[in-house]
């Protein structure tokens, strides 16, 4: 199964030998649509609109952004996967709808056949935050409260089978009895978190989250990242706190229908990488504590393959199933 995924994704990324590639005349011949597989208001939406603004002049066409949230990204990914495979419809997403959702329940697309890894964009850390309803000050208080009153601490996430959900499940496996509160995307969970509808929540950095942090509405208790963030040097990683299995980092990128011509994939990939290389784009992404991750199509396909394989093991061990 995993070997087949690797072959399919690598085939989609690699395509034909360079000598055989021919870009369709006039591509793109009409506006390019980017489906954001999450609702408005979150990291994906903000980043996509920044990139779309720069891609439009590079491609010589309008670049339209359309939000198709729900089901952890499966609804938007399905809409993209079943669109005409000519490069005029692509998706921006964390890689989890391809590498995670197929392991936890039925999805309306075939992750092995319908989707091509197009371009890596960025890594985004995952924050564990306290809301106004959380009475503690740091992660040690999370541990103490979870042990004193099992199940009393509620953790909001952007949905079932998201990386935030995996973080919660791994903490539960490690002995912290937390109650998961899944939403249908990042925007509403942030709003309800500010209103104290639950004690804790997970989120990727975004302008909305960072603004509320500056206002003192949220407290960052831990970050899931390879190391401490330069902007938050006092905040420990989940690994430092003794929970390495909860140290998930989101990897975001573009995807296309699997049967999109290779020359089109490579044209889009080149333009996306050119935009990501612009100093102002890198600055705007890093201000949100994201890390630009430019790669070749082959490297991005390998990342997708590795995470697919790793998630299969995590899901089986945690017993995660979509509702």
What do you see in this structure?
The chain has helices at 2-14, 43-59, 74-81, 96-99, 101-104, 139-148, 163-173, 186-194, 207-214, 262-276, 279-287, 297-318; strands spanning 32-36, 63-67, 89-94, 115-124, 126-130, 154-157, 179-182, 200-203, 219-224, 250-257, 291-292. By secondary structure, the chain is α/β, with parallel strands linked by helices. The protein folds into 2 domains: 2-13 and 30-124 and 249-318, D-Maltodextrin-Binding Protein, domain 2; 126-243, 3-Layer(aba) Sandwich (D-Maltodextrin-Binding Protein, domain 2). α1 packs antiparallel against α12 and α2 packs across α10 (262-276). It is globular and about 65 Å long.
The domain count comes to 2
Helical percentage: 40-55%
Number of strands: 11
Query: Which residues form runs of ≥5 with pLDDT under 50?
Result: 1-20
Which key features would you list for this structure?
323 residues, alpha/beta, D-Maltodextrin-Binding Protein, domain 2, 2 domains, six-stranded mixed beta sheet, globular, disordered N terminus
Give the helices and strands, then pairings.
Layout: H1 2-14, E1 32-36, H2 43-59, E2 63-67, H3 74-81, E3 89-94, H4 96-99, H5 101-104, E4 115-124, E5 126-130, H6 139-148, E6 154-157, H7 163-173, E7 179-182, H8 186-194, E8 200-203, H9 207-214, E9 219-224, E10 250-257, H10 262-276, H11 279-287, E11 291-292, H12 297-318
């Amino acid at each position: 199964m995993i070997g087949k995924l690797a072959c399919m994704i690598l085939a989609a990324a690699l395509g034909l030998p360079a000598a055989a590639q021919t870009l369709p005349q006039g591509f793109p011949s009409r506006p390019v649509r980017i489906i954001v597989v999450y609702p408005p208001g979150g990291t994906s939406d903000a980043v996509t609109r920044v990139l779309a603004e720069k891609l439009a002049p590079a491609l010589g066409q309008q670049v339209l952004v359309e939000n198709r949230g729900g089901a952890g990204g499966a609804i938007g990914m399905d809409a993209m996967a079943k669109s005409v495979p000519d490069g005029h419809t692509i998706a921006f997403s964390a890689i989890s709808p391809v590498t995670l959702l197929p392991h936890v329940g039925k999805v309306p697309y075939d992750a092995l056949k319908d989707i091509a890894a197009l371009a890596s964009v960025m890594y985004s850390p995952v924050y564990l935050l306290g809301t106004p309803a959380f009475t503690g000050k740091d992660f040690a208080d999370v541990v103490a409260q979870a042990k004193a009153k099992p199940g009393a601490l509620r953790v909001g996430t952007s949905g079932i089978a998201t990386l935030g959900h995996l973080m919660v499940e791994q903490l539960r496996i490690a002995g912290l009895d937390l109650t998961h509160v899944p939403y249908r995307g990042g925007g509403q969970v942030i709003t309800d978190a500010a209103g104290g509808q639950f004690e804790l929540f997970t989120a990727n950095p975004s302008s909305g989250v960072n603004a509320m942090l500056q206002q003192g509405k949220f407290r960052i208790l831990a970050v899931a990242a390879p190391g401490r963030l330069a902007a938050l040097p006092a905040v420990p990683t989940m690994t430092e706190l003794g929970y390495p299995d909860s140290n998930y980092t989101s990897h975001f990128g573009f995807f296309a229908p699997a049967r999109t011509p290779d020359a089109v994939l490579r044209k889009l990939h080149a333009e996306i990488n050119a935009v990501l290389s612009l100093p102002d784009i890198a600055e705007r992404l890093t201000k949100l504590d994201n890390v630009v991750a430019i790669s070749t199509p082959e490297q991005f396909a390998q990342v997708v393959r590795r995470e697919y394989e790793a998630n299969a093991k995590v899901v089986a061990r945690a017993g995660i199933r979509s509702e």
